[in-house]
């Protein structure tokens, strides 16, 4: 069986993707830039949201320097800015 990772969508990312999560086949060297391309191929409406969203991997926010990579079995959350009070 192919190794996979999971992506969870929250708030406006959930609305744009019309789902709360997806599974993707894992491959080497999926960094934030590659992940963004993978997500946009499946959900083009995410484009404006991904520009302002944070990534969290296994419930830990990832650095803005984008030096991390996705590993098999990871759970990646797309967390858009939250407004309200």
TrEMBL record:
It holds the Pfam family ThiS. It is found in: Cytoplasm. The modification 1-thioglycine is found at residue 85. C-terminal thiocarboxylation occurs in 2 steps, it is first acyl-adenylated (-COAMP) via the hesA/moeB/thiF part of UBA4, then thiocarboxylated (-COSH) via the rhodanese domain of UBA4. InterPro entries: Beta-grasp_dom_sf, MOCS2A, MOCS2A_euk, Mopterin_synth/thiamin_S_b, ThiS/MoaD-like. Pathway: Cofactor biosynthesis; molybdopterin biosynthesis. The modification Glycyl adenylate is found at residue 85. Keywords: Cytoplasm, Molybdenum cofactor biosynthesis, Nucleotide-binding, Phosphoprotein. Heterotetramer; composed of 2 small (MOCS2A) and 2 large (MOCS2B) subunits. PANTHER family: MOLYBDOPTERIN SYNTHASE SULFUR CARRIER SUBUNIT. Acts as a sulfur carrier required for molybdopterin biosynthesis. Component of the molybdopterin synthase complex that catalyzes the conversion of precursor Z into molybdopterin by mediating the incorporation of 2 sulfur atoms into precursor Z to generate a dithiolene group. In the complex, serves as sulfur donor by being thiocarboxylated (-COSH) at its C-terminus by UBA4. After interaction with MOCS2B, the sulfur is then transferred to precursor Z to form molybdopterin. Belongs to the MoaD family. MOCS2A subfamily. This is Molybdopterin synthase sulfur carrier subunit. The lineage of its organism: Eukaryota, Fungi, Fungi incertae sedis, Mucoromycota, Mortierellomycotina.
């Amino acid at each position: 069986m192919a190794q996979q990772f999971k992506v969870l969508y929250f708030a406006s990312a959930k609305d744009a993707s019309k789902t709360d999560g997806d599974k993707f086949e894992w491959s080497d060297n999926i960094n934030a830039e590659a992940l963004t391309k993978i997500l946009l191929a499946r959900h083009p409406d995410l484009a404006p949201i991904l520009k302002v969203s944070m990534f969290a991997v296994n419930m830990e926010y990832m650095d803005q320097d984008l030096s991390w990579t996705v590993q098999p079995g990871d759970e990646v959350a797309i967390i858009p800015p939250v407004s309200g009070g």
